[in-house]
Amino acid sequence: MLVQPGPTATPDRATTPQNVPVTLSPLGNDTPGNATDGSDGSWDVTSVTSVRLLPDGLPRGSTVSADGKTATVPGQGTFTVGADGVVTFTPEAGFTGTVAPIGYSVADANGTTVEATVRVVVGPAGVVAPNKVAAKPGTPVTVDVLANDTPPTGEEWVPSSVCLVPHGTCLKEYTEDGVGTWVVNPDGTITFTPADGYSGTATIAYSVTDTAGNVYTTTLTITVPPGSLAQTGAELAPFLLTGFGALFAGVLLVGVARRRRRVVVEGA
To answer: Under a CB-based contact definition with an 8 Å cutoff, are residues 175 and 188 in contact?
Structure first.
């Protein structure tokens, strides 16, 4: 009689910021045993509702409900199994660190039970800080907005997830009339191009997502000073030309008046 391969279960790991629950599917990386005819096996249709948390190895004082659907680890948090077999860990307020590993069991369609563990790390929450940068009038400026941000423990920022959210909707480009244009670059940096003649303080909200799927929002502020004479020469040109024209006209009038005065005196 040919013995078919049995099920295998792989330990699961998850990370989450402080005070943020995390969910994971234990069966997502597990393999059921082959069917008796050698074909690919499957999990028992009721297995997602029979996933059970195990008390073995938990710290003293921990409790596991009779149906294996809830387990509480004092000072760390609580595990729960949903109707779909998904496990959720809710950390206690303020807790950070590695949660005591907890075992779980599940059966395949052949009725064979397999066990594995779930490990969760709770790190400090990610921190995103506002960015403030100065720009030259009429000159684009690019800002690495993630340079002063800190992702949660065990996670990284996803640069391609950076979005402009001036009105709550994710945008990769946004133009504010009379102020300038914001563009998110593929590497997660943001470029601001001031509108012609604009000076002042321009602020926009942006968001970024970490590898655990947590979304953070903060702001980018660009200060554009008034342009110098050299930078606004084109705008001043008409004024300067008008001024010189008036000055030249004034000289002519004075000259003519003096000539007329001399003529009158000679004729007396």
So the answer is: no
Q: Residue 52: name the closest of 33, 35, 66, 36 by CA.
A: 66
131-224 has which fold? Immunoglobulin-like (2.60.40)
CA–CA gap between residue 106 and residue 111 (Å, rounded):
9
CATH, domain 12-123, list 3.50.50.60, 2.60.40.10, 3.40.50.150, 1.10.760.10: 2.60.40.10
Single-letter amino acid, residue 248: F
215-224 and 180-184 beta bridge pairing: unpaired
**CA distance from start to end of the chain:** 146
Write the pLDDT tens digit of every residue in 77-131: 999 999 888 999 999 999 999 999 999 988 777 777 888 999 998 988 789 999 9
- pTM of the full structure: 0.53
| Tokens representing residue 69 in the block | 């659907």
CB atoms within 10 A of CB 101: 15
Q: Where are the domains of the chain?
A: 12-123, 131-224
- Cβ neighbors of 146 (< 8 A, separation 6 or more) are 157, 159, 162, 188, 208
What does the alpha-carbon distance between residue 208 and residue 213 come to, in Å, rounded to a whole number? 10
Written as six digits, the tokens of 130 are 């506002």
